[in-house]
Fold this sequence. Notes:
By secondary structure, the protein is an alpha/beta fold. The protein has two domains: 29 residues; 205 residues, TIM Barrel, CATH 3.20.20. It is 44% helix and 15% strand. It has nine helices and eleven strands. The strands form three sheets. Strands 2, 3, 4, 7, 8 and 9 form a six-stranded parallel β-sheet that branches. Helix 5 crosses helix 6. The longest helix has 29 residues. The chain is globular, with a radius of gyration of 21 Å. The N terminus is likely disordered.
Amino acid sequence: xxxxxxxxxxxxxxxxxxxxxxxxxxxxxxxxxxxxxxxxxxxxxxxxxxxxxxxxxxxxxxxxxxxxxxxxxxxxxxxxxxxxxxxxxxxxxxxxxxxxxxxxxxxxxxxxxxxxxxxxxxxxxxxxxxxxxxxxxxxxxxxxxxxxxxxxxxxxxxxxxxxxxxxxxxxxxxxxxxxxxxxxxxxxxxxxxxxxxxxxxxxxxxxxxxxxxxxxxxxxxxxxxxxxxxxxxxxxxxxxxxxxxxxxxxxxx
Length: 253
């Protein structure tokens, strides 16, 4: 009886160790902050930028609703701040007047795919077709073809990044997540952003998030008061040769 108990215990320990190993491998593969030396063989998007000055970017993903787009434009205009909006192709189809309003106000309008698909499940050809369709829709409204891309759901792998590089597009993630899509209060959104921001940060918001318009003025005022300049992502990025370290930080070559 005791021998059977020992055998069962060993099996449970082995199973538990296997589960822990699987979890560790999954996290290591998906979190650039702990990739370490293996990052030299991985393709990573840009999460943030090494900057000598205190420049940051505000970014908004637009995929679903349109309740507050004009309100966001008005807030940005009040502070003379320009942001980068990553929009989905079907959002452009539904709200072309909002896309034009964003561009007319001086904000960048970039691609967030054509249909918010899971890009890691698409072939390279499908990715190129998808992004091209989105780019064409944006360019038809704004007159400017997007040079930046944000993966739907923040999901990517090597072949996704390589496909976008083949299109001469930068893939942009973020290092400060407001989590506004979780309907956090304005105070919670503000605390998350102001406690995590640093020079070169790319901050993630969403349009149609419940409390973002309430939180945005205070966040902008905090940044300006603390010496930050707020620029669109294309102005935040380093020009010329660069590298991306294992955390996704863009560095000069």
